[in-house]
Amino acid sequence: MLTLMEAVRSFDLYVAERLAESRVMGKPLKVLLRQGVTDARDTCHSAWTILKAHGPTHVQFWFIALAIGIAAGTAAVLFRLGIYAIQTTVYGTDDVLTLHSFAAGLAWYQILVIPICGGLIVGVILHRFTDDGRVRSVADVIEGAALSEGRVEVRRGLASALASMITLSTGGSTGREGPVVHLAAVISTGVCRWINASGITGRDLLGCAVAAAVSASFNAPIAGALFALEVVLRHFAVHAFAPIVIASAAGTVINRLVFGDVTEFTLTVQNALAFYVELPAFLILGFVCGLVAVALMKAIFWADDFGNYVQEETGIPRYLRPAIAGALLGGLAIWWPHIIGVGYETTSAALTGALLWHEAIVFVILKVVAVAITMGGRMGGGVFSPSLMVGALTGLAFGIIATSAFPTVSGGSTLYALAGMGAVAAAVLGAPISTTLIVFELTGDWQTGLAVMVAVSISTALSSRLVDRSFFLTQLERRNVHLAAGPQAYLLATFKVSSIMRKMDVPGAADEEECWRLVREGLYLDGNATLEQAMPIFERGSPRFIPIVTLGGEDSPPVLWGALFQVDALRAMNRALAATAAEEHS
């Protein structure tokens, strides 16, 4: 980049050249300067055309990543400030970080009515701006990275962000990271469309936006970058690392300009392992946390299925579903206001050992129920913050038992709370690396890494075998989007047979009589089918090709468009797998 002085010298040189040209050619200086402006405009237009046609260069990409990082970081901070502003307005508190303590002093009808009103607003927004009444979140971003060249739904994404903001502001018991990640993905999608980014570039820009959003939301630059690589892009390609780190750093700077360089949680005691013989206890804690994480995920899925069943059986309008969930949350919050909002106050109490054993157990159960109601009621929000709270409470309860049973060979119970927080969150997100780091960055405690890593590794290994690797991938699996099995499974759904088939009028086309014979036997595919439907047919019957037809109505005969040859399908699949491997190892 030119410095200011270099730019001034360049401009002076340009003017001097034009003056000399004016003397030689006899043209007025005004005409020559006007010609210079026209040339500069044409050059910029040409550069923009090249950028849109061929994508940005490495240097251009880094500057675009920086811009996306600033934009996504700003969006994350504004989202957080919006939650604070609405919470302050509806609950009347001056400090949203102690919301549940303040809410305990409110009248019971206020605690009940606020989530109902919030749910009703959320229901109207989602009914108006989405086709299924579902909030878009991290799972949709992962799907966009894998199947849509890094693009996500813009209109529905903006509506989901607004709905989640209202949910978190009016008593919804979820987290802010899910909507923030999708909101950042909306920003990157706009940029991708603007510059006509290719698949790899689009995915990398998506990773930049996600990294910046996570970093700005939690003041965690290292974890933000690794979250984008581990959870969203699901690879650690070297070519993506530099721009994602740039964006993550930009998001962190935005956070610190607004909130200062402070951690989300403040620990009052220094955690340390008493002896290395204490490590087996953290292995057991990891096992317990893995089961708790699975229970949390299963509860959310069960609540969603139950909500769908009730909605279908009773005919309740879908815009009332969040309001009903809000009524259930408000009823719980009358007696246990700890379930309101993100829950950082209760998490902090667990990390500092300010809760009793029975309180930790009760709050775990209540939080799981509250999160299931919120997400099953389609109110919006993410699962990361709830998993932190559930994990910290689980770890504290386990730690109280462990330190009481073996007081001479154990440290403090708060160390178990810290390890439990990471273990449950890592199991839910399916992201052991970034979650371990984000726990350290949220607390500022880097001295207890061994205990946290042991618990995280066991919980993740256990939970990944009881669900489809993570909460997000299991969500997608429930929608018949098979990303958990790897690219060899989900890439099949990206190829329509109509784009690979051989038409009937090309050399090497299938025999028409043989095609109609197969159609009469019921062996054919519609033109809108994908290789996901075609490959099992090849595997079962080993036909050389499958006819592609369009079935007419009762009075219209079917139309034969061509045939999908097995060799063509395998060739397309091989090219896609090779491209994926090249991207992941570049």
Account of the protein in words:
Pfam families: Voltage_CLC. It is a multi-pass membrane protein. By secondary structure, the chain is an all-alpha fold. The chain has four domains: 4-54, no CATH class; 58-259, Clc chloride channel (Orthogonal Bundle), CATH 1.10.3080.10; 276-478, Clc chloride channel (Orthogonal Bundle); 488-584, CBS domain Like. The protein contains 25 helices and four strands. The two termini are 27 Å apart. A hairpin with an 8-residue loop joins strand 3 (545-550) and strand 4 (559-565).
Summarize this entry quickly.
By secondary structure, the chain is an all-alpha fold. Helix content is 70%, strand content 3%. The protein is built from 25 helices and four strands.
Give the topology string: H per helix, E per strand. Answer: HHHHHHHHHHHHHHHHHHHHHHEHEHEEH
DSSP strand content: under 5%
Q: What is the domain total for the residues?
A: 4
- Given the structure, what is the number of helices? 25
Distance between the termini: 27 Å
Morphology call: globular
What would CATH call the architecture of the largest domain? Orthogonal Bundle
Tell me how many strands there are. Answer: 4
Report the top-level CATH class of the largest domain.
Mainly Alpha
Largest sheet: 4 strands, mixed
Helix content: over 70%
Arithmetic mean pLDDT: 85
Q: What strand order characterises the main sheet?
A: 1-4-3-2
Tell me the radius of gyration. Answer: 28 Å
Unreliable runs, pLDDT <50, ≥5 residues? none
Category by helix and strand content: mainly alpha
CATH superfamily of the largest domain: Clc chloride channel
Protein name: Chloride channel protein, CIC family
Transmembrane segments: 61-86, 106-126, 205-229, 235-258, 279-303, 323-344, 356-377, 383-403, 415-440, 446-467
Membrane topology: Multi-pass membrane protein
Subcellular location: Membrane
